[in-house]
Amino acid sequence: MTRSTASPIARYSSGVGAVLLAGLAWFQLALALGAPWGRAAYGGVIEHPTGRMRGSSAVASVVWAIVALVVLRRGGHAVPQVVPGRAVPVVMWVAIGLLAVGVVLNTLTPSKRERIIWAPASLVMLVATMATELAARTHR
Prior knowledge:
Helix content: 55-70%
Radius of gyration: 15 Å
């Protein structure tokens, strides 16, 4: 989808979603680099993430950064194409599924910080990503 053919809903929702997804990517990168923010991640059970958690966060930071770019592109913004065009709808629906799981897990977590920060952020990311995909599909 090019900038000129994107619906206003797709452009707006993709911008909102991508900003939050980029924030999530930065948060995960900070965890990977050793930031003591474990109480706001991984169920809040540990202040300093373990090596395995840091590795997981490193991978997650890359994945969410790619998803942010895909969401922006799906919304009609001029950003680099990081996945083949035919894969974009698949990436969008996989991201929507992961974000839905994130909403559930961040709502059920014993970590109060995760419930306060990530449950609502995950919900907004989910709604924005889904709105982008649905608007992009209906505005061809």
